[in-house]
Amino acid sequence: QKEVEQNSGPLSVPEGAIASLNCTYSDRGSQSFFWYRQYSGKSPELIMFIYSNGDKEDGRFTAQLNKASQYVSLLIRDSQPSDSATYLCAVRGSQGNLIFGKGTKLSVKP
Amino acid sequence: GAVVSQHPSRVICKSGTSVKIECRSLDFQATTMFWYRQFPKQSLMLMATSNEGSKATYEQGVEKDKFLINHASLTLSTLTVTSAHPEDSSFYICSAIIAGEQFFGPGTRLTVL
Question: What percent of chain A has pLDDT over 90?
Fold first, then answer.
């Protein structure tokens, strides 16, 4: 069974700093990886997805994938207080569903 | 705008009653919808996969007779929590695959007293 592991945090960074969120997954055959942001009481919203080894950048966000190490990370540059949320790492399951980690709670201090 | 809607957004009910949650894909057809459940400080856990016109596929440990899923049309899936108990209190979220992309509904907060 596929598993996704994340450090639950909380991760606290000052405003303007880089926040680094990490995730490992168990199934070496996994192909699709996703980062979601979830505010308290709300459903997840997609930040980025990544399929290929290496880095993928979108604005202040960079996703990094290392399939050999079964490791996915998300970097948030110039962190803002509005980035404070729980970040969920997910991999695609066999039915098209998403298998989520428990999430890392990020707190950006002004 | 929203691609997937859920109704109601919040429901409080007495123990032993049944609660129906609707998940609609707006303006798009979704042959597959997923139902997730999220307990406080936990991640989203897949409960079942709902396919239009066929029986839902339930994950291990999810009682199909307690969590009834009906996917009668390409735009609507319903989850009925039968004889709800306090331990069923949770955040229920549906998602739909539309044109290969997964969209989440806003979620339904169920509180069973």
Answer: 85
